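It is worth pausing here to work through a concrete case rather than discussing structure prediction in the abstract. The textbook approach is simple: state the sequence, then state the predicted structure, then interpret. We follow exactly that order.
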Amino acid sequence: MSEETQNTAQLGEKIVEVLKTIFDPEIPVDIYELGLIYDVFVNEDNDVKVLMTLTTPNCPVAETLPVEVEEKIKSIDEVNEAEVEITFDPPWSQDLMSEEAKLELGLL
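Step two, the predicted structure:
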């Protein structure tokens, strides 16, 4: 593994840690465990792009949650730029939640 790949992987882990500090206001589980984060891309310039969804298109935090995600990722020293893209394809469902999230919400 090249040093660059290793640095990118470490940054990816830091990003996941930050994402786990952001909670959906309606569900007491972080957005990562909820399965709202579809993908995190980090390039060699440490530009980050997050592909995420919301529980519903008219989610009450549709305006603020992506901004919070972007701001928190930008707060990581190594991150150069951060961009959050919202998608509803595929639409979010409970199947995307981690076992931990399902357990937390009494779905298991």
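Step three, interpretation. The mean pLDDT is 93. The helical segments are 3-19, 65-74, 99-104.
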